[in-house]
Design brief:
Blueprint: H1 2-8, H2 15-25, H3 35-48, H4 51-62, E1 69-70, H5 72-81, H6 88-98, E2 106-107, H7 108-117
Antiparallel strand pairs: 1-2
Helix pairs in contact: 3-4, 4-7
């Protein structure tokens, strides 16, 4: 699932590169990437690349309908595709923590701030 997500972000990692990424950030050795860990991993990776373009590509992965907002449903689906089954409460917490204008969803600017805050 992580490989598919990275490919949607414009990367083409090998299976060993994907496993190396997971090993680097999987502090509890669960074999899964939790959402904050995923954000941390992606933000570290984007420091080395053109951060603005890469974060925009990551946003597009989450914004599956392309309307400029990440909804609770979109967040939950992408995370499930990554093997991360989040509860409704966890989804609410992520949205609430990132939703600066309190419209119930995450726009690109809020996503960008969130990605940069985990560095």
């Amino acid at each position: 699932m992580l490989g598919r997500l990275l490919r949607q972000c414009g990367e083409n990692p090998s299976e060993s590169e994907i496993q190396d990424l997971i090993n680097d950030v999987d502090s509890d050795a669960s074999g899964f990437l939790h959402f904050p860990t995923f954000l941390n991993m992606m933000s570290k990776k984007y420091v080395e690349l053109n951060a603005e373009d890469e974060i925009r590509e990551a946003f597009k992965v989450f914004d599956s309908d392309g309307n400029g907002y990440i909804t609770r449903r979109e967040l939950k689906i992408v995370m499930m595709n990554m093997g991360e089954k989040l509860s409704d409460e966890e989804i609410e917490s992520i949205i609430d923590d990132s939703d600066l204008d309190n419209d119930g969803q995450i726009n690109y600017e809020e996503f960008y701030i969130m990605m940069n805050s985990v560095k």
